[in-house]
Amino acid sequence: MFLEPVGLPESLRGRTLVMGVVNVTPDSFSDGGLHLDPAAAVAHARSLISEGADIVDVGGESTRPGATRLDPTEERRRVIAVVETLASEGIAVSIDTMNADTALAAVGAGALVVNDVSGGLADAAMLPTVAELGVPYVCMHWRGHADRMNSLAVYDDVVTEVRAELAARLDACERAGIDPRRVVLDPGIGFAKEAAHNWALLHHLDRLAELGRPLLIGASRKRFLGSLLADPSTGEPRPTGERDAATAAVAAIAAASGVWAVRVHAVAATRDAVAVGTAWRHG
Fold first, then answer.
1. What pTM did the predictor assign?
2. Closest C-alpha among 18, 7, 211 to residue 119
3. How far is CA 72 from CA 39, 59, 118, 170, in A?
4. What is the pLDDT, as a whole number, of residue 146?
5. Is 77 annotated as catalytic?
6. Which of 7, 45, 180, 267 has the most CB atoms around it within 10 Å of its CB?
7. Which of 230, 280, 269 is nearest to 247 (CA)?
8. 222 classed as catalytic
9. Sheet holding 183-186: strands in order across?
10. Using CA atoms in the order 196, 68, 19, 216, what is the torsion angle rounded to 10 degrees?
C-alpha cells in the first residue's frame, strides 16, 4: 500500500519519490567536504535534479557514526542560503536538521519538508515548531546522538521494538499538535542498528507500514551494504563510493513495498530502480 503525506505540491504526489542528498558538511561519511561551499552545494543540488531527483535534502550537520554535534548557528550559516537559492529556482527542498531554529529558518527560506533524524528527541522545541509550521515532517527512529549510537544497537526483536518506538514518536507528534497526516516515518537504517537489524527492517517494511503513515528509507551507501559486498579474499568492505548499485537494489525493494521516498546520493540509477519496483508493485 502506498501512502504519502499531505501538504506537498501536486507535482510531488502519487508516486515513490527520489530524495537527493546535499551534504553541506566537511565530515559526512560519503561526500564530506565536497559541497561545503554554498555555490558547490547549489550546483550539486541542480545536478541531482537534472538526474531526476524529486526533492533535495539539504543538511549542514553530519550524523555519521562518531560525529560530534555542530553549533546550530554554524549549521544555519551553512544551509540557509543554499535552501533559499534552490527554493527561488523552484526546486523542492527538505531540510535535514535536528534543531528547531534551523527548521524554522529553512522553512522560512522555502523548504517544504523538515527531515529530523532524531524524531524530535534532540530538541524539545522541534515538535511544537513543526506543528506551527504546518509542513510535512519526517520522524526517524533514533536512540541517541552519533557519538554513542553504536552502543545503543541492542534489540531482542528489532522490528517489534522499532515499530513500537516509532509509534511512540507518532503519538508525541500528535500531542505536540502536528497533523498526523503530515508525518512520515523513517526506521533509521544504520542509526543504532547493526547489519542484521537493517536487513530485518527492510524485510518487514509491511510491519512498519501498519502504523498507517508513509515511510522514508535512507540506506544509501551505508556500512551494511559495504559489509554485504566485502572483498571475499580480504574481507574489506566495499568502498563507500562503490555501493550505488546495491543502494539502487534497496530502492527497488522499497518502491515495491510502497514507500513514500528513498533518500540517496546517486539519483539516476535510483530513479530507474524505483520505476522497476513501482511497476512490480502494480503488477
1. 0.94
2. 211
3. 21, 12, 15, 25
4. 78
5. no
6. 45
7. 269
8. yes
9. 183-186, 137-140, 113-116, 93-96, 55-59, 17-23, 261-264, 216-217
10. 40
Amino acid in the structure at residue 60? G
78-115 residues labelled b (16+ CB within 10 A) or e (exposed): bbbbbbbbbbeeebbbbbbbbbbbbbbbbbebbbbbbb
CA 181/CA 192 separation, integer angstroms: 27
Report whether 86 contacts 107 (CB < 8 A).
Answer: no
**Assigned C-alpha cell, 83:** 535552501
Per annotation, catalytic residue among 76, 78, 213, 222: 222
pLDDT in tens, 205-256: 999 999 999 999 999 999 999 999 999 999 999 999 999 999 999 999 999 9
Rounded distance between C-alpha atoms, residue 29 and residue 131, angstroms: 31
Give me the catalytic one of 169, 221, 243, 263: 263
Residue 98, CA atoms < 13 Å, CB-side half-sphere: 18
